[in-house]
Amino acid sequence: MNDLIKKLIMLVITLLLVSAAAFITFQIIPGDPVTAALGTDYTEEAAEQMREALGLNRSLPERFFSWLWGAVRGDFGTSMQYHQPVSALIGDRLAVTLWLAVLSMLFVIVVSIPLGILAARFSGRAADRVITLLSQIAMAVPPFFLGILLTLVFGIVLSWFTPGGYVSLEQDPAGFFSYLIWPAAAVAIPKIAMTVKFLRSSVIRQMRLDYVRTARSKGNKESAVLLRHVLKNALIPVVTFLGMAAADVLAGSIIVEQVFGLPGIGRLLVVSISNRDYAVVQAIILYIAFAVVVINFLVDLLYQRLDPRVRLN
Amino acid sequence: MEKKNINHRLGQILVCAVVLFVLIGCFYTPYDPNEMNAGLVNAGPSLTHPFGTDQFGRDVLSRVMKGAGTTFFVGLCTVAIGAAAGILLGALTGYYGGLFDEILMRVNDGLASFPSILLALVIVSISGPGTYQLILALGVLFIPSFARVVRSEYILQKQMDYVKNAKLMGVSDARILFVHILPNTGTILRSALTIGFNNAVLAEAGMSYLSLGVQPPDASLGRMLSEAQSYLFSAPWSALAPGILIVLTVLGFGLLNERGE
Protein backbone atom coordinates (compact mmCIF):
# COMPACT_ATOMS: atom_id res chain seq x y z
CA MET A 1 0.00 0.00 0.00
CA ASN A 2 2.81 2.31 1.01
CA ASP A 3 4.49 1.49 -2.25
CA LEU A 4 1.36 2.38 -4.20
CA ILE A 5 1.18 5.82 -2.58
CA LYS A 6 4.83 6.43 -3.42
CA LYS A 7 4.13 5.45 -7.00
CA LEU A 8 1.09 7.72 -7.18
CA ILE A 9 3.12 10.66 -5.92
CA MET A 10 5.75 9.90 -8.56
CA LEU A 11 2.98 9.79 -11.16
CA VAL A 12 1.73 13.24 -10.18
CA ILE A 13 5.28 14.66 -10.24
CA THR A 14 5.90 13.14 -13.67
CA LEU A 15 2.65 14.57 -14.99
CA LEU A 16 3.58 18.01 -13.65
CA LEU A 17 7.02 17.82 -15.25
CA VAL A 18 5.54 16.69 -18.56
CA SER A 19 3.01 19.52 -18.59
CA ALA A 20 5.70 22.05 -17.66
CA ALA A 21 7.81 20.74 -20.55
CA ALA A 22 4.84 20.95 -22.91
CA PHE A 23 4.16 24.51 -21.77
CA ILE A 24 7.71 25.86 -21.85
CA THR A 25 8.48 24.27 -25.22
CA PHE A 26 5.82 26.39 -26.86
CA GLN A 27 7.01 29.57 -25.14
CA ILE A 28 10.37 29.55 -26.89
CA ILE A 29 8.87 29.57 -30.37
CA PRO A 30 10.16 32.48 -32.38
CA GLY A 31 7.41 34.74 -33.72
CA ASP A 32 4.48 36.39 -31.99
CA PRO A 33 1.14 34.55 -32.20
CA VAL A 34 -0.76 37.83 -31.81
CA THR A 35 0.98 39.42 -34.79
CA ALA A 36 0.32 36.29 -36.81
CA ALA A 37 -3.36 36.16 -35.84
CA LEU A 38 -4.01 39.83 -36.60
CA GLY A 39 -2.17 39.74 -39.91
CA THR A 40 -2.96 42.84 -41.95
CA ASP A 41 -5.30 44.22 -39.25
CA TYR A 42 -2.29 44.76 -37.01
CA THR A 43 -2.32 47.92 -34.94
CA GLU A 44 -0.60 48.59 -31.64
CA GLU A 45 -3.91 48.81 -29.74
CA ALA A 46 -5.49 45.77 -31.31
CA ALA A 47 -2.39 43.73 -30.43
CA GLU A 48 -2.46 45.02 -26.87
CA GLN A 49 -6.15 44.18 -26.55
CA MET A 50 -5.62 40.68 -27.87
CA ARG A 51 -2.69 40.11 -25.49
CA GLU A 52 -4.91 41.23 -22.64
CA ALA A 53 -7.71 38.91 -23.76
CA LEU A 54 -5.38 35.94 -24.18
CA GLY A 55 -3.54 36.71 -20.96
CA LEU A 56 -0.21 36.93 -22.77
CA ASN A 57 0.94 39.99 -20.80
CA ARG A 58 1.34 38.09 -17.55
CA SER A 59 4.50 36.47 -16.20
CA LEU A 60 5.59 33.00 -17.30
CA PRO A 61 4.84 31.06 -14.06
CA GLU A 62 1.51 32.86 -13.76
CA ARG A 63 0.58 31.84 -17.28
CA PHE A 64 1.73 28.26 -16.68
CA PHE A 65 -0.44 27.78 -13.64
CA SER A 66 -3.48 29.39 -15.20
CA TRP A 67 -2.94 27.22 -18.28
CA LEU A 68 -2.52 24.10 -16.12
CA TRP A 69 -5.58 24.96 -14.03
CA GLY A 70 -7.53 25.42 -17.25
CA ALA A 71 -6.20 22.11 -18.56
CA VAL A 72 -7.33 20.32 -15.40
CA ARG A 73 -10.83 21.70 -15.94
CA GLY A 74 -10.66 20.76 -19.61
CA ASP A 75 -10.22 24.33 -20.82
CA PHE A 76 -7.31 24.69 -23.24
CA GLY A 77 -8.19 28.11 -24.62
CA THR A 78 -9.39 28.91 -28.10
CA SER A 79 -8.05 27.67 -31.39
CA MET A 80 -6.75 30.51 -33.54
CA GLN A 81 -7.53 28.59 -36.70
CA TYR A 82 -11.03 27.32 -36.01
CA HIS A 83 -12.17 30.04 -33.56
CA GLN A 84 -13.56 27.30 -31.35
CA PRO A 85 -12.66 26.10 -27.86
CA VAL A 86 -9.79 23.62 -28.15
CA SER A 87 -11.52 21.14 -25.86
CA ALA A 88 -14.52 21.01 -28.22
CA LEU A 89 -12.23 20.41 -31.19
CA ILE A 90 -10.42 17.60 -29.43
CA GLY A 91 -13.52 16.12 -27.83
CA ASP A 92 -15.08 15.18 -31.16
CA ARG A 93 -11.92 13.61 -32.47
CA LEU A 94 -10.59 11.89 -29.39
CA ALA A 95 -13.12 9.05 -29.62
CA VAL A 96 -12.00 8.15 -33.15
CA THR A 97 -8.34 7.95 -32.14
CA LEU A 98 -9.12 6.01 -29.00
CA TRP A 99 -11.23 3.47 -30.88
CA LEU A 100 -8.46 3.10 -33.44
CA ALA A 101 -5.88 2.52 -30.70
CA VAL A 102 -8.09 0.06 -28.81
CA LEU A 103 -8.91 -1.92 -31.93
CA SER A 104 -5.24 -2.02 -32.94
CA MET A 105 -4.15 -3.23 -29.52
CA LEU A 106 -6.87 -5.86 -29.64
CA PHE A 107 -5.47 -7.10 -32.95
CA VAL A 108 -1.95 -7.13 -31.55
CA ILE A 109 -2.90 -9.19 -28.51
CA VAL A 110 -5.24 -11.61 -30.25
CA VAL A 111 -2.96 -12.35 -33.19
CA SER A 112 0.55 -12.13 -31.79
CA ILE A 113 0.23 -14.34 -28.73
CA PRO A 114 -0.90 -17.51 -30.58
CA LEU A 115 1.62 -16.86 -33.38
CA GLY A 116 4.46 -16.29 -30.93
CA ILE A 117 3.67 -19.50 -29.07
CA LEU A 118 3.38 -21.41 -32.33
CA ALA A 119 6.75 -20.11 -33.54
CA ALA A 120 8.41 -21.05 -30.26
CA ARG A 121 6.74 -24.46 -30.10
CA PHE A 122 8.02 -25.40 -33.55
CA SER A 123 11.23 -23.38 -33.37
CA GLY A 124 13.57 -24.16 -36.22
CA ARG A 125 10.89 -25.94 -38.21
CA ALA A 126 8.82 -24.82 -41.19
CA ALA A 127 6.03 -23.06 -39.25
CA ASP A 128 8.58 -21.10 -37.25
CA ARG A 129 10.56 -20.14 -40.32
CA VAL A 130 7.49 -18.87 -42.15
CA ILE A 131 6.31 -16.85 -39.14
CA THR A 132 9.79 -15.43 -38.49
CA LEU A 133 10.31 -14.48 -42.12
CA LEU A 134 6.88 -12.84 -42.37
CA SER A 135 7.41 -10.90 -39.18
CA GLN A 136 10.85 -9.79 -40.35
CA ILE A 137 9.25 -8.37 -43.50
CA ALA A 138 6.28 -6.88 -41.62
CA MET A 139 8.63 -5.03 -39.28
CA ALA A 140 10.22 -3.29 -42.26
CA VAL A 141 6.94 -1.85 -43.57
CA PRO A 142 6.08 1.58 -42.21
CA PRO A 143 2.45 1.66 -41.00
CA PHE A 144 1.38 4.36 -43.44
CA PHE A 145 2.72 2.44 -46.43
CA LEU A 146 0.91 -0.61 -45.10
CA GLY A 147 -2.20 1.55 -45.01
CA ILE A 148 -1.66 2.52 -48.65
CA LEU A 149 -1.13 -1.13 -49.58
CA LEU A 150 -4.29 -2.20 -47.76
CA THR A 151 -6.23 0.56 -49.50
CA LEU A 152 -4.86 -0.54 -52.84
CA VAL A 153 -5.45 -4.27 -52.41
CA PHE A 154 -8.65 -4.41 -50.35
CA GLY A 155 -10.13 -1.05 -51.20
CA ILE A 156 -9.42 -0.63 -54.89
CA VAL A 157 -8.65 -4.06 -56.36
CA LEU A 158 -10.97 -6.22 -54.24
CA SER A 159 -13.47 -3.46 -53.29
CA TRP A 160 -13.98 -4.85 -49.80
CA PHE A 161 -14.29 -1.32 -48.46
CA THR A 162 -14.57 2.18 -49.92
CA PRO A 163 -11.35 4.18 -49.53
CA GLY A 164 -12.17 7.42 -47.75
CA GLY A 165 -15.64 6.10 -46.93
CA TYR A 166 -15.48 6.94 -43.25
CA VAL A 167 -18.76 7.26 -41.37
CA SER A 168 -19.02 8.48 -37.79
CA LEU A 169 -19.88 6.19 -34.90
CA GLU A 170 -23.18 7.95 -34.20
CA GLN A 171 -24.27 7.74 -37.82
CA ASP A 172 -23.63 4.06 -38.41
CA PRO A 173 -21.79 1.99 -35.78
CA ALA A 174 -21.43 -1.05 -38.04
CA GLY A 175 -20.03 1.03 -40.90
CA PHE A 176 -17.71 2.83 -38.48
CA PHE A 177 -16.12 -0.36 -37.20
CA SER A 178 -15.96 -2.14 -40.54
CA TYR A 179 -14.03 0.86 -41.90
CA LEU A 180 -11.87 1.15 -38.78
CA ILE A 181 -10.66 -2.46 -39.20
CA TRP A 182 -8.32 -1.39 -42.01
CA PRO A 183 -6.47 1.46 -40.35
CA ALA A 184 -6.29 -0.65 -37.20
CA ALA A 185 -4.70 -3.46 -39.21
CA ALA A 186 -2.19 -1.02 -40.69
CA VAL A 187 -1.19 0.17 -37.21
CA ALA A 188 -1.23 -3.31 -35.71
CA ILE A 189 0.66 -5.47 -38.22
CA PRO A 190 4.20 -4.11 -37.60
CA LYS A 191 3.54 -4.27 -33.84
CA ILE A 192 2.27 -7.84 -34.20
CA ALA A 193 5.51 -8.76 -35.92
CA MET A 194 7.59 -7.26 -33.11
CA THR A 195 5.50 -8.87 -30.40
CA VAL A 196 5.71 -12.28 -32.07
CA LYS A 197 9.48 -12.02 -32.25
CA PHE A 198 9.67 -10.90 -28.64
CA LEU A 199 7.30 -13.57 -27.30
CA ARG A 200 9.04 -16.30 -29.31
CA SER A 201 12.42 -15.54 -27.80
CA SER A 202 10.87 -15.13 -24.36
CA VAL A 203 9.28 -18.61 -24.55
CA ILE A 204 12.46 -20.19 -25.91
CA ARG A 205 14.45 -18.64 -23.06
CA GLN A 206 12.02 -20.11 -20.51
CA MET A 207 12.12 -23.55 -22.13
CA ARG A 208 15.77 -23.94 -21.14
CA LEU A 209 15.07 -23.48 -17.42
CA ASP A 210 15.03 -26.25 -14.84
CA TYR A 211 11.34 -26.08 -13.97
CA VAL A 212 10.49 -27.00 -17.56
CA ARG A 213 12.63 -30.13 -17.32
CA THR A 214 10.87 -30.99 -14.05
CA ALA A 215 7.46 -30.48 -15.61
CA ARG A 216 8.44 -32.66 -18.54
CA SER A 217 9.87 -35.42 -16.37
CA LYS A 218 6.61 -35.53 -14.43
CA GLY A 219 5.12 -36.84 -17.66
CA ASN A 220 3.35 -33.73 -18.89
CA LYS A 221 2.69 -33.43 -22.58
CA GLU A 222 4.76 -30.84 -24.39
CA SER A 223 1.71 -28.65 -25.08
CA ALA A 224 0.68 -28.83 -21.41
CA VAL A 225 4.16 -27.78 -20.32
CA LEU A 226 4.04 -24.91 -22.74
CA LEU A 227 0.57 -23.64 -21.97
CA ARG A 228 0.34 -24.31 -18.25
CA HIS A 229 3.89 -23.70 -17.05
CA VAL A 230 5.94 -21.77 -19.53
CA LEU A 231 3.39 -19.32 -20.91
CA LYS A 232 2.67 -17.65 -17.58
CA ASN A 233 6.32 -16.81 -17.09
CA ALA A 234 7.05 -16.01 -20.71
CA LEU A 235 4.23 -13.48 -20.87
CA ILE A 236 5.59 -11.30 -18.06
CA PRO A 237 8.18 -9.43 -20.14
CA VAL A 238 5.66 -9.32 -23.00
CA VAL A 239 3.31 -7.25 -20.82
CA THR A 240 5.94 -4.52 -20.52
CA PHE A 241 6.57 -4.76 -24.21
CA LEU A 242 2.86 -4.40 -24.96
CA GLY A 243 2.72 -1.36 -22.71
CA MET A 244 5.40 0.27 -24.81
CA ALA A 245 3.56 -0.88 -27.93
CA ALA A 246 0.38 0.81 -26.68
CA ALA A 247 2.19 4.15 -26.56
CA ASP A 248 3.56 3.53 -30.04
CA VAL A 249 0.14 2.54 -31.33
CA LEU A 250 -1.25 5.83 -30.11
CA ALA A 251 1.51 7.74 -31.90
CA GLY A 252 1.44 5.51 -34.97
CA SER A 253 -2.21 6.25 -35.46
CA ILE A 254 -1.26 9.93 -36.02
CA ILE A 255 0.12 9.04 -39.44
CA VAL A 256 -2.34 6.29 -40.28
CA GLU A 257 -5.29 8.60 -39.63
CA GLN A 258 -3.90 10.71 -42.45
CA VAL A 259 -3.82 7.72 -44.82
CA PHE A 260 -7.42 6.71 -44.20
CA GLY A 261 -8.87 10.19 -43.80
CA LEU A 262 -9.98 9.54 -40.22
CA PRO A 263 -11.02 12.68 -38.33
CA GLY A 264 -8.97 11.83 -35.21
CA ILE A 265 -6.67 13.95 -33.06
CA GLY A 266 -3.65 12.91 -35.13
CA ARG A 267 -4.98 14.67 -38.17
CA LEU A 268 -5.97 17.66 -36.09
CA LEU A 269 -2.42 17.74 -34.72
CA VAL A 270 -0.81 17.68 -38.17
CA VAL A 271 -3.14 20.36 -39.54
CA SER A 272 -2.58 22.51 -36.46
CA ILE A 273 1.20 22.19 -36.74
CA SER A 274 1.03 23.37 -40.35
CA ASN A 275 -1.20 26.30 -39.33
CA ARG A 276 0.90 27.13 -36.26
CA ASP A 277 -2.22 26.79 -34.13
CA TYR A 278 -0.25 26.31 -30.92
CA ALA A 279 -3.11 26.13 -28.43
CA VAL A 280 -4.35 23.00 -30.21
CA VAL A 281 -0.87 21.50 -30.66
CA GLN A 282 -0.07 22.04 -27.00
CA ALA A 283 -3.31 20.45 -25.85
CA ILE A 284 -2.93 17.37 -28.06
CA ILE A 285 0.70 16.87 -27.09
CA LEU A 286 -0.34 17.10 -23.46
CA TYR A 287 -3.13 14.56 -24.01
CA ILE A 288 -0.85 12.03 -25.69
CA ALA A 289 1.96 12.59 -23.19
CA PHE A 290 -0.45 12.05 -20.30
CA ALA A 291 -1.74 8.91 -21.95
CA VAL A 292 1.82 7.60 -22.32
CA VAL A 293 2.69 8.36 -18.70
CA VAL A 294 -0.50 6.75 -17.40
CA ILE A 295 -0.02 3.66 -19.58
CA ASN A 296 3.52 3.28 -18.23
CA PHE A 297 2.20 3.62 -14.71
CA LEU A 298 -0.47 0.95 -15.24
CA VAL A 299 2.02 -1.42 -16.87
CA ASP A 300 4.31 -0.94 -13.90
CA LEU A 301 1.49 -1.90 -11.52
CA LEU A 302 0.47 -4.87 -13.64
CA TYR A 303 4.06 -6.03 -13.80
CA GLN A 304 4.22 -6.13 -10.03
CA ARG A 305 1.00 -8.11 -9.83
CA LEU A 306 2.34 -10.68 -12.26
CA ASP A 307 5.87 -11.06 -10.97
CA PRO A 308 6.17 -11.36 -7.19
CA ARG A 309 9.95 -11.00 -7.40
CA VAL A 310 9.54 -7.40 -8.54
CA ARG A 311 7.10 -6.72 -5.70
CA LEU A 312 9.68 -7.74 -3.09
CA ASN A 313 12.28 -5.28 -4.29
CA MET B 1 23.02 -21.24 -36.98
CA GLU B 2 22.98 -21.83 -40.70
CA LYS B 3 19.71 -19.94 -41.04
CA LYS B 4 21.21 -16.87 -39.43
CA ASN B 5 23.94 -16.87 -41.99
CA ILE B 6 21.45 -17.01 -44.83
CA ASN B 7 19.56 -14.07 -43.35
CA HIS B 8 22.77 -12.15 -42.92
CA ARG B 9 23.84 -12.84 -46.49
CA LEU B 10 20.41 -11.81 -47.76
CA GLY B 11 20.76 -8.58 -45.79
CA GLN B 12 24.15 -7.91 -47.34
CA ILE B 13 22.78 -8.43 -50.84
CA LEU B 14 19.77 -6.18 -50.20
CA VAL B 15 21.85 -3.42 -48.65
CA CYS B 16 24.40 -3.54 -51.47
CA ALA B 17 21.65 -3.39 -54.10
CA VAL B 18 19.86 -0.48 -52.44
CA VAL B 19 23.05 1.48 -51.79
CA LEU B 20 24.17 0.95 -55.38
CA PHE B 21 20.77 2.13 -56.62
CA VAL B 22 21.01 5.28 -54.52
CA LEU B 23 24.64 5.96 -55.45
CA ILE B 24 23.83 5.74 -59.15
CA GLY B 25 20.90 8.07 -58.53
CA CYS B 26 23.30 10.70 -57.16
CA PHE B 27 25.12 10.92 -60.47
CA TYR B 28 22.74 9.67 -63.11
CA THR B 29 18.97 9.38 -63.50
CA PRO B 30 17.30 8.34 -66.77
CA TYR B 31 15.26 11.58 -66.80
CA ASP B 32 15.34 14.85 -64.90
CA PRO B 33 13.37 13.89 -61.76
CA ASN B 34 11.49 17.21 -61.69
CA GLU B 35 10.81 17.46 -65.42
CA MET B 36 7.08 17.39 -66.13
CA ASN B 37 5.53 15.92 -69.22
CA ALA B 38 1.89 16.83 -69.76
CA GLY B 39 1.55 14.26 -72.55
CA LEU B 40 2.43 11.33 -70.31
CA VAL B 41 0.45 11.76 -67.10
CA ASN B 42 0.05 8.68 -64.86
CA ALA B 43 1.38 6.39 -67.60
CA GLY B 44 1.88 2.76 -66.61
CA PRO B 45 5.23 0.99 -66.51
CA SER B 46 6.77 0.66 -69.96
CA LEU B 47 10.17 0.22 -71.54
CA THR B 48 10.89 3.97 -71.59
CA HIS B 49 9.52 4.50 -68.06
CA PRO B 50 10.07 1.20 -66.15
CA PHE B 51 8.13 2.42 -63.06
CA GLY B 52 5.66 4.55 -65.01
CA THR B 53 5.10 8.28 -64.57
CA ASP B 54 3.30 10.28 -61.87
CA GLN B 55 0.47 12.82 -61.94
CA PHE B 56 2.70 15.45 -63.54
CA GLY B 57 4.21 13.05 -66.05
CA ARG B 58 7.49 12.86 -64.10
CA ASP B 59 9.47 9.64 -64.44
CA VAL B 60 8.90 7.60 -61.26
CA LEU B 61 12.17 5.65 -61.54
CA SER B 62 14.22 8.87 -61.70
CA ARG B 63 12.25 10.33 -58.81
CA VAL B 64 12.68 7.23 -56.69
CA MET B 65 16.44 7.26 -57.35
CA LYS B 66 16.69 10.93 -56.43
CA GLY B 67 14.19 10.64 -53.58
CA ALA B 68 15.96 7.69 -52.02
CA GLY B 69 19.10 9.83 -52.15
CA THR B 70 17.35 12.54 -50.12
CA THR B 71 16.00 9.98 -47.66
CA PHE B 72 19.45 8.40 -47.26
CA PHE B 73 21.00 11.83 -46.83
CA VAL B 74 18.55 12.64 -44.03
CA GLY B 75 19.18 9.22 -42.50
CA LEU B 76 22.97 9.54 -42.60
CA CYS B 77 23.02 13.09 -41.22
CA THR B 78 20.60 12.11 -38.46
CA VAL B 79 22.68 9.12 -37.46
CA ALA B 80 25.87 11.21 -37.63
CA ILE B 81 24.46 13.84 -35.27
CA GLY B 82 22.89 11.27 -32.95
CA ALA B 83 25.97 9.04 -32.88
CA ALA B 84 28.54 11.81 -32.43
CA ALA B 85 26.72 13.44 -29.53
CA GLY B 86 25.53 10.09 -28.17
CA ILE B 87 29.02 8.57 -28.13
CA LEU B 88 30.46 11.62 -26.40
CA LEU B 89 27.72 11.68 -23.75
CA GLY B 90 27.66 7.91 -23.34
CA ALA B 91 31.44 7.71 -22.99
CA LEU B 92 31.63 10.51 -20.40
CA THR B 93 28.68 9.33 -18.31
CA GLY B 94 29.66 5.66 -18.53
CA TYR B 95 33.28 6.27 -17.64
CA TYR B 96 32.92 8.88 -14.90
CA GLY B 97 29.45 8.11 -13.50
CA GLY B 98 28.36 10.42 -10.69
CA LEU B 99 25.61 13.00 -10.44
CA PHE B 100 25.88 14.16 -14.05
CA ASP B 101 25.37 10.57 -15.17
CA GLU B 102 22.42 10.13 -12.83
CA ILE B 103 20.60 13.24 -14.09
CA LEU B 104 21.28 12.53 -17.73
CA MET B 105 20.06 8.95 -17.48
CA ARG B 106 16.83 10.07 -15.79
CA VAL B 107 16.16 12.51 -18.63
CA ASN B 108 17.08 9.75 -21.04
CA ASP B 109 14.59 7.31 -19.51
CA GLY B 110 11.89 9.95 -19.58
CA LEU B 111 12.47 10.72 -23.25
CA ALA B 112 12.66 7.04 -24.18
CA SER B 113 9.17 6.39 -22.86
CA PHE B 114 7.67 8.79 -25.42
CA PRO B 115 7.17 7.67 -29.02
CA SER B 116 9.85 9.35 -31.12
CA ILE B 117 7.39 10.48 -33.80
CA LEU B 118 5.59 12.53 -31.16
CA LEU B 119 8.80 14.26 -30.08
CA ALA B 120 9.75 14.85 -33.71
CA LEU B 121 6.36 16.47 -34.26
CA VAL B 122 6.92 18.73 -31.27
CA ILE B 123 10.33 19.86 -32.52
CA VAL B 124 9.13 20.39 -36.08
CA SER B 125 6.10 22.33 -34.86
CA ILE B 126 8.55 24.78 -33.30
CA SER B 127 11.21 24.87 -35.99
CA GLY B 128 8.84 24.69 -38.94
CA PRO B 129 8.89 22.05 -41.68
CA GLY B 130 11.90 21.50 -43.97
CA THR B 131 14.70 19.06 -44.72
CA TYR B 132 17.32 20.60 -42.40
CA GLN B 133 14.85 21.17 -39.59
CA LEU B 134 13.91 17.52 -39.87
CA ILE B 135 17.55 16.39 -39.76
CA LEU B 136 18.14 18.48 -36.65
CA ALA B 137 14.95 17.24 -34.97
CA LEU B 138 15.65 13.57 -35.67
CA GLY B 139 19.37 13.94 -34.88
CA VAL B 140 18.62 15.34 -31.44
CA LEU B 141 16.04 12.63 -30.85
CA PHE B 142 18.52 9.89 -31.64
CA ILE B 143 21.13 11.07 -29.11
CA PRO B 144 19.57 9.25 -26.10
CA SER B 145 19.47 5.83 -27.73
CA PHE B 146 23.14 6.03 -28.77
CA ALA B 147 24.17 7.45 -25.40
CA ARG B 148 22.44 4.58 -23.61
CA VAL B 149 24.13 1.86 -25.67
CA VAL B 150 27.58 3.45 -25.48
CA ARG B 151 27.26 4.17 -21.77
CA SER B 152 26.52 0.58 -20.81
CA GLU B 153 29.41 -0.60 -22.96
CA TYR B 154 31.80 1.85 -21.28
CA ILE B 155 30.67 0.75 -17.83
CA LEU B 156 31.59 -2.80 -18.83
CA GLN B 157 34.88 -1.94 -20.48
CA LYS B 158 36.23 0.37 -17.80
CA GLN B 159 36.54 -2.57 -15.39
CA MET B 160 38.70 -4.52 -17.82
CA ASP B 161 42.37 -5.07 -17.20
CA TYR B 162 43.55 -3.24 -20.26
CA VAL B 163 41.95 -0.03 -19.06
CA LYS B 164 43.46 -0.38 -15.57
CA ASN B 165 46.77 -1.09 -17.21
CA ALA B 166 46.57 1.99 -19.36
CA LYS B 167 45.70 4.09 -16.31
CA LEU B 168 48.71 2.77 -14.40
CA MET B 169 50.92 3.68 -17.32
CA GLY B 170 49.65 7.25 -17.02
CA VAL B 171 47.64 7.42 -20.20
CA SER B 172 45.37 10.48 -20.23
CA ASP B 173 41.62 10.00 -19.72
CA ALA B 174 40.79 11.39 -23.14
CA ARG B 175 43.11 8.89 -24.76
CA ILE B 176 41.69 5.98 -22.76
CA LEU B 177 38.14 7.05 -23.63
CA PHE B 178 38.52 7.43 -27.35
CA VAL B 179 41.65 5.55 -28.41
CA HIS B 180 41.58 2.57 -26.05
CA ILE B 181 37.93 1.88 -25.28
CA LEU B 182 36.06 3.22 -28.30
CA PRO B 183 37.40 0.67 -30.83
CA ASN B 184 36.26 -2.12 -28.49
CA THR B 185 32.66 -0.95 -28.65
CA GLY B 186 32.66 -1.55 -32.40
CA THR B 187 30.28 -4.51 -32.57
CA ILE B 188 27.64 -2.90 -30.39
CA LEU B 189 28.08 0.43 -32.13
CA ARG B 190 27.68 -1.10 -35.55
CA SER B 191 24.31 -2.59 -34.72
CA ALA B 192 23.23 0.64 -33.02
CA LEU B 193 24.17 2.51 -36.19
CA THR B 194 22.19 0.23 -38.50
CA ILE B 195 19.14 0.27 -36.23
CA GLY B 196 19.46 4.04 -35.98
CA PHE B 197 19.68 4.39 -39.74
CA ASN B 198 16.57 2.25 -40.19
CA ASN B 199 14.63 4.30 -37.69
CA ALA B 200 15.80 7.49 -39.38
CA VAL B 201 14.62 6.25 -42.79
CA LEU B 202 11.23 5.34 -41.33
CA ALA B 203 10.97 8.64 -39.46
CA GLU B 204 11.90 10.67 -42.53
CA ALA B 205 9.31 8.83 -44.57
CA GLY B 206 6.65 9.39 -41.92
CA MET B 207 7.39 13.07 -41.39
CA SER B 208 7.67 13.85 -45.10
CA TYR B 209 4.47 11.91 -45.67
CA LEU B 210 2.79 14.33 -43.26
CA SER B 211 4.28 17.21 -45.33
CA LEU B 212 6.41 18.21 -42.33
CA GLY B 213 9.77 17.08 -43.69
CA VAL B 214 11.20 17.41 -47.19
CA GLN B 215 9.29 20.08 -49.13
CA PRO B 216 8.15 19.95 -52.78
CA PRO B 217 9.33 19.88 -55.50
CA ASP B 218 12.19 17.86 -53.95
CA ALA B 219 11.55 14.16 -53.95
CA SER B 220 11.98 11.95 -50.92
CA LEU B 221 10.46 8.53 -50.40
CA GLY B 222 7.89 9.74 -47.87
CA ARG B 223 7.07 12.83 -49.90
CA MET B 224 6.45 10.71 -53.02
CA LEU B 225 4.12 8.41 -51.09
CA SER B 226 2.02 11.30 -49.89
CA GLU B 227 1.79 12.76 -53.41
CA ALA B 228 1.00 9.40 -54.97
CA GLN B 229 -1.76 8.48 -52.56
CA SER B 230 -4.41 10.63 -54.24
CA TYR B 231 -3.72 8.83 -57.51
CA LEU B 232 -3.70 5.33 -56.05
CA PHE B 233 -6.58 4.34 -58.28
CA SER B 234 -5.12 5.51 -61.60
CA ALA B 235 -1.39 5.20 -60.91
CA PRO B 236 -0.62 2.71 -58.12
CA TRP B 237 2.99 2.32 -59.36
CA SER B 238 3.97 5.79 -58.19
CA ALA B 239 3.08 4.76 -54.62
CA LEU B 240 4.42 1.22 -54.82
CA ALA B 241 7.90 2.10 -56.08
CA PRO B 242 8.97 4.39 -53.18
CA GLY B 243 7.17 2.23 -50.62
CA ILE B 244 8.83 -0.98 -51.71
CA LEU B 245 12.23 0.73 -51.69
CA ILE B 246 11.67 1.75 -48.05
CA VAL B 247 10.73 -1.84 -47.19
CA LEU B 248 13.79 -3.27 -48.95
CA THR B 249 16.11 -0.79 -47.24
CA VAL B 250 14.77 -1.37 -43.76
CA LEU B 251 14.58 -5.13 -44.30
CA GLY B 252 18.16 -5.22 -45.61
CA PHE B 253 19.66 -3.34 -42.69
CA GLY B 254 17.45 -5.30 -40.28
CA LEU B 255 18.68 -8.65 -41.61
CA LEU B 256 22.26 -7.41 -41.49
CA ASN B 257 21.85 -7.21 -37.75
CA GLU B 258 20.64 -10.79 -37.37
CA ARG B 259 24.17 -12.09 -36.91
CA GLY B 260 24.56 -10.21 -33.66
CA GLU B 261 21.84 -12.16 -31.86
Question: Kindly, what is the distance between the CA atoms of the first and last residues of chain A, rounded to a whole number of angstroms?
Answer: 14 Å
**Portion in beta strands of chain A:** under 5%
Structural class per helix/strand content of chain B? mainly alpha
Pair with the most extensive interface?
A-B, 45 and 37 residues
Q: Could you give me the name of the CATH homologous superfamily of chain B?
A: MetI-like
How much helical structure, as a percent, in the residues of chain A? over 70%
Average pLDDT rating of chain A: 83
Measured on Cα atoms, how large is the radius of gyration of chain B? 22 Å
Q: Under the CATH scheme, which architecture of the largest domain in chain A would be assigned? A: Orthogonal Bundle
Topology:
The complex is a heterodimer of chains A (313) and B (261).
Chain A: H1 2-25, H2 33-38, H3 44-54, H4 60-72, H5 86-121, H6 126-140, H7 143-157, H8 173-207, H9 210-217, H10 222-260, H11 265-275, H12 278-306, H13 308-312
Helix pairs in contact in A: 1-12, 5-6, 5-8, 5-10, 5-12, 6-8, 7-8, 7-10, 8-10, 9-10, 10-11, 10-12, 11-12
Chain B: H1 2-27, H2 60-96, H3 98-112, H4 116-127, H5 131-157, H6 161-168, H7 173-181, H8 186-209, H9 221-228, H10 237-256
Helix pairs in contact in B: 1-2, 1-10, 2-3, 2-5, 2-8, 2-9, 2-10, 4-5, 5-8, 6-7, 8-9, 8-10, 9-10
